[in-house]
Task: structure prediction
Amino acid sequence: MQRQLIECVPNISEGRDRVKIDAIAAVVETVEGVRLLDVDPGKATNRTVITFVGEPGPVCEAAFRLIKKAQELIDMRGHKGEHPRFGATDVCPLVPISGISMEETAKHARTLAERVGKELSIPVYCYEAAATEEKRKNLANNRSGEYEGLPKKLKDAAWKPDFGPAEFNDSVARSGATAIGARNFLVAYNVNLNTTSTRRANAIAFDIREAGRVLRNGDPLTGKPILDANGEQKKVPGKLKAVKGIGWYIEEYGIAQLSLNLTDITVTPVHIAFDEACKSSAERGIRVTGSEVVGLIPKQSLLDAADFFLKRQERSLGISEREKIKIAVKSLGLDDLAPFDPQKKVIEYMLEDANSERLVRMDLKRFSEETAAESPAPGGGSVAAYVGVLGVALGTMVANLSAHKRGWDARWEEFSDWAVKGEKLRHELLYLVDEDTRSFDRILAALGLPKGSDEEKKARKAAITEATKGAINTPLRTMQVCVTSMDLMMAMATHGLPASVSDAGVGALCARTGALAAYLNVRINCAGLDDADFKTKVLAEVEALKSKVDALEAEVMTLVLGKV
Result:
């Protein structure tokens, strides 16, 4: 069963006192099984975004301890900052990451909210997927009036907290209120402007955000609202769905920014928000100089941004993930105000387990040393996969060079598509380099199981059989991918850059070598398997693949030798 993982992103109303910030963030790591990913303070906003991840139970416990610590250390009676807020822990959203639905996440959020209200006597409003009524789904509605409006709000029956006290007593005066909810991954995204005018920044934000702007008589920001026949304020909707935003001045940087919340990046991705901000700013005589991500961002957001800008340049999309991240950072100006470190800002990189990619993280010299050492793994299976990696990398290189060839501009998409296919195959083969060693480790683990009683012997035998099948399926998949990669070599030998046709040939030789090496691993691992039906089926498949890869390699080499 897939492990359930949720992310928690509490925003506390303290962004200047590092001692307090660190003390509040530190309680997260007192809960076993929870990983603190990021602590991102803002001086001008006087607000810190804290991000941690883990299974639901431990994460909710860590969130409770954090809210309690913030209640102890932050006194809202003296708080000032640019960002809207109404409590020491202003918001505390839970975000489903994997293995858990939004509905389940919302249940955890409501359970946490009830505990905070009961044990800490903090007024709590549930929002987004955890909301108890429609009007409370929107965080802005719950927080309207901010901290200063709480005494009046708590007296209003329509805004009675979901949990906790409905009175502005001394304890609440200190802690304020908290919004706890469940939502999709939200990207807090600021766009930097070459102006100091909050008024103009707000105008641009109103152009972009989904809520748009209220129609007013006279001044578009301060004039009297125009009402419709029902007495409701008339509005002009903004350009982008699932975007909230305001403009503000950041004294720390000496510039105005658009402060955007991208509440559904599948509807409005980061690069579209940035692009529209550039257009609206230019229309008002203002230039966007860059942007910044507050907290963490999903890797795919940056990869999509890179593809967006590469397409505009009519450049191949089949380049490495590392290069795409660099392009996204530069295109979005994420390093405008401070260095942008993907290893600390991209959520997937923060969650990476270095042990799961032990071999592919090595340099070439270290990998060869590890292979030569007095241990059976890494062995032929890992080497087979890596030879395949080198082959498909060469084919991808030819595709990328062809996409950029002078005079072939009309064909860039054709070669880009091949390069993208090559990159996918390269990534799978890289995974199989380490997976082959992990398969061997699983066999060793099965062999080490107890074998005293009949029941233990039976369980041990079953575990060995399953581990052996895994050790067969891994090189089988390596063989399948290497054979598939031959299509790339064939296309590049036929249609690719003539000057690089020999590279397509070397790629084909590597792909065949990887496939044949994997073939040997499948056969030797099959020798120790008791499941005759499984063995017969696999051996028939690898013989067919062997014949196919031999024929494809011969065809590619005939093409190559006819051109060199």
Observations:
- The chain has three domains: 5-182, 187-345, 354-561.
- The first helix runs from residue 18 to 26.
